[in-house]
Amino acid sequence: MNAGHSHPDVVEAIKAHLKNDPCPGFSGLPQGYALEKLVEIAPGEMRANLKYSYVAPQGADAIEAAGQLGKYHSQKPGVISFEGGWHGVSGSGLGTTGKKGYKIKFLPLMPGGPTSSPMRTATGCAFGLNYPACDLQCAKYLEHIIRDPDSGATSPGRCAH
Ligand SMILES: Cc1ncc(COP(=O)(O)O)c(C=O)c1O
Description:
- The chain has helices at 8-20, 29-41, 44-49, 59-74, 91-96, 100-103, 137-147; strands spanning 78-82, 115-117, 156-160.
- By secondary structure, it is mainly α.
- Pyridoxal-5'-phosphate (PLP) binds at residues 58-60, 63, 86-88, 93.
């Protein structure tokens, strides 16, 4: 949405916001309220087990945090990302991004990975199939990547999608 340059209503809204959240990007009251709402609508099991929440300043930070949590929790180094996915421009964000044009000049981004898995994208199914007749070939292929010791995937503990 284009609100113009320094629209007075936008400037006032930012000033009001800064009173509650003097350091946008870090967790503050507005993020706390948003998290409370998210917890309220979270599916039962997730809500019951939720102990901690983290509000990332931007998407790439969320990807970094998710990757680190996955690695910490699983103690496995591998990452599987999906073709066509976009995950930002940080090291592992761009590393897991499935768009060659954005990353090609910065390789290697993630030592040893990630392993790429097909997923239906705007350009269609990698297997040339349609749902439901496809019988979820993409999910079956993903399972093969994870389970087959000869797939080349290095013990995936994380999945970026
Ligand atoms: C799934 C996903 N991960 C990461 C990002 C990167 O977000 P940011 O540009 O805020 O770092 C995006 C942005 O669209 C995204 O959709």
